[in-house]
Amino acid sequence: xxxxxxxxxxxxxxxxxxxxxxxxVYWSVSRPDPGLANYVRIAQDGHVQGILLDTFRICAxxxxxxxxxxxxxxxxxxxxxRTGRILIEVFVLIPFWVSPLxxxxxxxxxxxxxxxxxxxxxxxxxxxxxxxLVRNELGVVIGMVHFMVPYALFPIMSSFSQxxxxxxxxxxxxxxxxxRTFWQVLFPLTLPGTIGSTVMVFVLSLGFxxxxxxxxxxxxxxxxxxxxxQLFQLSDWGLxxxxxxxxxxxxxxxxxxxxxxxxxxxxxxx
Length: 270
Prior knowledge:
The protein contains 13 helices and no strands. It is an all-alpha fold and 270 residues long.
């Protein structure tokens, strides 16, 4: 029985993931004509490169903001009372119960020109005209950060849950201030979770479709939406497949870096 499971699981993974991906690779080098023309186009087409660079930039900004916010929340969770921890966990889990589509439309109601935020700012006399907070890159980043903070939080919370607080007390007892204790004791101990959180958020952000499409208003096109356009609007299956292969390659490199950096970030036994 164990031998059967040992061989059936890799076979299942091969059938579910590897074979479809190989099909995508085949499309990328066979449509519309055999060869590497689609990859050459990606390397030479300024429009495609611009979308890739915009996607990577937006994902990087989203990752940085999400990880910083998640680290602050995780720090509060780690040192909160039992009741405080429960409240933080509840508010972290609530977004998972709401559809990304509903959240995106909710942000439009908040950020649009006659939305809640702009009306409040104008009523308070802080601005004279509505701020452009949606249908642009800012709105996309806000929506993506809101979606990704819980995902960024879980790996960091895992590191904090394994933290030996006696090390922090020892650091303070030896005369180190709060800032020095943070940079030389707390942050290094939670670095593996922070690295994992960073890679996870960036990888998941690469596949965002609904949030950028709604909050970007057609003015901000990320790679997932662009692949969709090539597939279902322009029927350019070869280019779409090649772009998908490029994204998978980027994700593979990031996961490799996570494995390397995560290993070096772990405390070494002496």
